[in-house]
Q: What sequence folds into this?
């Protein structure tokens, strides 16, 4: 029979997870891609139609745009209507809080030490913080936790596994990582096929019933995944993101898809959880199931290969690691970790004290960002420049920085359409290469700009293009502030602004 204080500690750990999640989810909006997701959701709500072809750019107009995140985008847009920028911060906080709160409960259910659970939750929160943004991939940790819990729980409660296909109906309409979920179900198929029910040390043997069970579940999950607006086309499209796929080139172009620097202070917690977790699992390999072993290996590969995978990789590794490490440490010293759910002794004072301190820090960390007057980090976005553009009737095709594309869609569409934004797979290699040629002012860059009929643009300071358009050649800067420069083709439809920028006083027309 569980002790009464056990229930109290479960509740406290859950609250701690919520607080830590809310803490890492608070703060200014920093992600650039939030805004095109917001616009897509807004247009779905307005029109009642899930648009499948691009209408936000002039370089990829009409290109197929997979609806792999439409459901989250609708939720995001509806949230934005309630409170605009600050409402998006709250949505981010709530999703991050649910992820860490769910992790806390699952760790306790898997007989992890309470004290070790506190330590792991803090480490996971620190590992997740750099990648917590109000974007569809924030659903990924919740969906992964639900998946692995249902699969493992089905060992003792077989009916649970048939909830997994229902999960994939939601997943395939929320985020493209449902293909990762299918791979994990594939691991479960291998686990069941080899008859390893609990631990690797139980031995591996081919099990015909296990093959049938695992294959049936995998096929059911694939069938559930095609319950989306474009059916099998979405599954095939999403597979192209995998290494070697048609869209895998973005991993060499975008920072969030590149390997993290594990030696950096920012990645210290991620390194501890992933590398430390892998070592523990390898040392205790005989005490884990084949499913857990395969899952840990996948999380290490993801976390070391892609920076944006740090949060889900750390959370799932914690799910695998913490019970294994708890059991090991209890074998080494039954009193090392203090009181646990199976103990008849009273809990040590250090645990509630640690939780109170972390909770207070969490509350203080959350309070300031969510009560700030502006949730948007204006140092990251060209807020003033966009306001100037919006009042000066610029005409013709735009050129813009990749990372500002989403914000420009959010603020200027439908009056202006962007050159590029965060949907790099939709634009393809050629458009991205041409965008980069213009940005870096490589040989023939003006001819490339002319081929897209670029008549004006916005650029951030410090890149070659910013220097190349300073009132020389065919281009002239007509607005400049610390965040952005707006320039026009002096021989195009916006030539009137060139003369105006020379004759008007600097404060009146934006030149500083």
A:
């Amino acid at each position: 029979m569980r002790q009464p204080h056990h229930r109290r500690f479960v509740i406290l750990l859950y609250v701690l997870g919520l607080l830590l999640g809310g803490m890492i989810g608070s703060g200014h909006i920093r992600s650039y891609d939030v805004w095109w997701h917001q616009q897509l959701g807004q247009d779905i709500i307005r029109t009642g139609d899930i648009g499948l072809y691009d209408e936000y750019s002039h370089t990829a107009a009409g290109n197929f745009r997979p609806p792999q995140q439409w459901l989250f985008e609708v939720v995001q847009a509806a949230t934005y209507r309630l409170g605009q920028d600050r409402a998006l911060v709250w949505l981010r906080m709530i999703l991050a809080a649910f992820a860490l709160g769910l992790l806390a409960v699952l760790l306790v259910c898997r007989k992890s030490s309470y004290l070790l659970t506190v330590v792991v939750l803090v480490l996971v929160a620190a590992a997740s913080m750099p990648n917590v943004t109000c974007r569809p991939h924030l659903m990924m940790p919740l969906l992964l936790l639900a998946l692995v819990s249902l699969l493992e729980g089905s060992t003792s409660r077989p009916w649970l596994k048939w909830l997994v296909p229902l999960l994939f109906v939601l997943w395939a309409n929320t985020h493209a990582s449902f293909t990762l979920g299918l791979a994990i179900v594939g691991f479960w198929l291998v686990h069941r096929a080899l008859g390893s029910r609990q631990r690797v040390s139980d031995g591996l043997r081919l099990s015909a019933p296990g093959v049938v069970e695992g294959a049936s579940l995998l096929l059911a999950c694939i069938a559930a995944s095609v319950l989306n607006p474009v059916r099998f086309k979405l599954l095939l499209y999403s597979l192209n993101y995998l290494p070697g796929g048609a869209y895998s080139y973005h991993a060499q172009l975008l920072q969030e898809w590149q390997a993290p620097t594990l030696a950096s202070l920012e990645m210290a917690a991620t390194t501890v959880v992933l590398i430390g977790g892998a070592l523990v699992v390898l040392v205790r390999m005989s005490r884990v199931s084949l499913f857990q072993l395969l899952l840990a290996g996948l999380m290490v590969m993801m976390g070391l290969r892609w920076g944006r995978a740090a949060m889900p990789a750390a959370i799932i590794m914690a799910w695998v690691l913490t019970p294994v490490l708890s059991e090991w440490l209890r074998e080494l010293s039954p009193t090392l970790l203090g009181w646990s759910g199976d103990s008849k002794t009273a809990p040590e004072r250090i645990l509630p004290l640690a939780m109170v301190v972390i909770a207070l820090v969490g509350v203080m960390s959350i309070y300031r960002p969510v009560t700030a007057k502006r949730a948007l980090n204006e140092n990251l976005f060209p807020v003033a420049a966009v306001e100037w553009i919006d009042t000066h009737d610029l005409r013709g095709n735009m050129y813009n920085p990749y990372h500002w594309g989403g914000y420009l869609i959010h603020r200027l569409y439908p009056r202006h359409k962007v050159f590029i934004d965060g949907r790099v797979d939709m634009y393809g290699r050629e458009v991205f290469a041409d965008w980069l040629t213009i940005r870096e002012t490589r040989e023939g860059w003006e001819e490339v700009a002319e081929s897209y009929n670029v008549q004006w643009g916005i650029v951030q300071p410090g890149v070659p293009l910013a220097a190349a358009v300073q009132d020389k050649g065919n281009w002239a800067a007509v607005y400049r502030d610390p965040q952005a420069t707006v320039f026009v083709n002096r021989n195009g439809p916006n030539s009137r602004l060139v003369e105006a920028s020379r004759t008007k006083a600097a404060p009146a027309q934006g030149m500083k």
